[in-house]
Amino acid sequence: LSRRSIPQDKWLEAFGPSLDITKAAQKLSVVAIDWEKLTDPKTRGDYLHSAQQPPSSSIIAPSPDNNIAAATVQATPVAPPTILDAFKQHHYVAMCLGTTRKDAGSAEAFRRCDFDYVTAFAQTVRDAAASDGNQNVLRCFSQVSSQGADAKSWFLYMRTKGEADDFVSQAGLFPRVSILRPGLLGRGDKARTVESIISCFVTPMPVKSVALALVRDFFSPTPNSSSSHVTILHNGDINRIAA
Fold this sequence. Notes:
It comes from Bodo saltans. InterPro entries: NAD(P)-bd_dom_sf. The protein has two domains: 1-86, no CATH class; 89-243, NAD(P)-binding Rossmann-like Domain (Rossmann fold). It is an alpha/beta fold. Helices cover 40% and strands 10% of the residues. α10 (207-219) crosses α11. The strands form three sheets. Strands 3-4-5-8 form a four-stranded parallel sheet, with helices on both faces.
């Protein structure tokens, strides 16, 4: 989850009305993912069963730009022995990775990040849940997508987002899926040039609102008018839940 401009205590409070903030902070840990090894069929198996480095021991502190918090741990929890183990025993999982063609450098690099990495992560979460032996551990998988995401779109960005959404929505992969499709995001000083121009005509969606809606939907699922296990949260839904 992005923690831009959100104080540590406020961010953690969003996880539940009775959460012990100190204990919650102690459970945070960092797992560095080698995306190339995770997505390569030749290395994926060995990589998932390889040992991971234990997380560092320090307090949660903001990054140098005082905007995005560095995800470190306040205590030294026991590190899962392998990469796959780090994906196990989670009730809620969120995928928030994303870039643009310009930032990625090419259409191929953009798709590599926004489809290959995203779907590899989702499949690993599913594999880990299945290997737990208790299929009821994982309750919800949430994914931050984009307004207009459509696998049939002519536009690379929208098509790639839509294909990634379709992948995580397939039957049998997760018991419940929430896909957040915000419009223009308010990134402040991090805003790209085009985003800055558009924001003059359209009110941006605060990143904080997306994060709050995502977490709150974990604990209080948004009513779904259909019998589908997939819920799509659009701009209005996100604003309402985050309010």
